[in-house]
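Memo to structure team: turn this sequence into structure tokens by end of day. - J.P.
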Amino acid sequence: MPDSPETSTDEHLSFATQQDVPIPYIARIRSYYQALGYGKPYVWAHYSNVPFTPLTKPLADCRLALVTTAAPYQPDKGDQGPGAAYNGAAKFHRVYTLPSDSEPDLRISHISYDRQHTTAEDMRSWCPLAQMKRCAAKGEISGLTRSLLGVPTNRSQKTTLTQDAPEILERITEEGADAVVLVPNCPVCHQTVSLTARHLEANGIPTVVMACAKDIVEHVGVPRLLFSDFPLGNAAGKPNDEASQAFTLRLALQTLAAAPGPRTTVQSPLRWSDDPDWKQDFYNIERLSDQQIRDLRADFDRQKDIAKREWEKSRAQADCMAVLLQGKW
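Reply from structure team:
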């Protein structure tokens, strides 16, 4: 339909540009992998009904747990530092816990964050542990569970639902969590934590997801979402910007406490950049040459093989441990 005076986007009306909207990750990823030659598109988890557990006491009386998809640094698994290329060898495949009173060394080289517009140099931009400790010190929350928990990025929704989410529930219940903050990084991470949040809520634990991929989280269906319109890998605030990180966590906690019901989405007012063109790059097949597409396909296949070998090794170690434990029993 041609522009009319009522629909004009002339500058004098101060409209935002048409591309200044949240990135449509599901559509982008579908086009991207089809262009790489992978055929049938991935089917994302989707629910019509969403469980919801209200927060039954003030935040100041709540002990919170933190769930992340970041991986503990593994010195023997290659480059995992700021700006590192995608590193399938650095993946983890089972839920882990680390002491929340320590300063863990977590990395996100094992997943597809936005490497073009952020470098993963500041862990606090994807893991709000330091800000949560500050909130506890100020009395804004009663404290943290003794463990920070990591949930693996699983393309298998069945594995997340039947193995990882129940394990997260068991561990945070043992540690007396009153509510949970979940922070994803890559597109599939957003599905993983959304499924985990749903499982926790269905079992009486309130949650809030801090995320950058709005469409994926809302497609799955979660009780509470704080959406930051930032490049993937920055759901806890801008890197090296403590004010941004503090504001983002504070807004997440307000969402946790004040959400009136399921599917509550709050969008942070913070902007990554005055120029929204960065949103046009991630997995945008229209901005890639034929040679880049061929190179990406080759690299993806290589990394997929590495990740598969690491998964098989992890599975073999787990099976061996199970046999040993059975023998002791």
